[in-house]
Design goal:
By secondary structure, the chain is an alpha+beta fold. It is built from 2 helices and 3 strands. A 3-stranded antiparallel beta sheet has the order 1-2-3, covered by helices on one side. It starts with 6 loop residues before the first strand and ends in a 6-residue tail after the last strand. The structure holds iron/sulfur cluster. Iron/sulfur cluster binds next to α1.
C-alpha cells in the first residue's frame, strides 16, 4: 500500500494536518477562508490569517476529511 502523505502546518499552539491524496479539491476551504487557504502559494495554508476558532470551524467542514487539526501536546484527530 502507498504511504499516506501528511503535511503539517503550525501556528499559535494549533497544528493543521492536511492529506493531499485525500483532498478532493472541492475548494470549500478556499471559499470559507480565502486569506488562509492560498493554493498558489507555498506553504499554501497561512494559519496566521484567521483565529483558532475560525480555523477549527472551517476544518470541520472539509468534505473529504483531508484537513484535521490538533492542539500541540494532544493526539491527532
Ligand atoms: S475543503 Fe478539504 S477537500 Fe476541499 S479543497 Fe480544502 S482540503 Fe481539499
Amino acid at each position: 500500500m502507498e504511504k499516506e502523505i501528511i503535511k503539517e502546518y503550525g501556528h499559535d499552539g494549533l497544528t493543521i494536518v492536511w492529506k493531499p491524496k485525500t483532498c478532493i479539491h472541492s475548494g470549500v476551504c478556499v471559499k470559507a477562508l480565502p486569506k488562509v487557504y492560498r493554493p498558489k502559494e507555498n506553504p499554501w495554508i497561512k494559519m496566521e490569517n484567521a483565529s483558532t476558532n475560525d480555523l477549527k470551524a472551517q476544518i470541520d467542514m472539509c468534505p473529504s476529511g483531508a484537513l484535521g487539526y490538533y492542539r500541540n501536546g494532544e493526539a491527532s484527530q
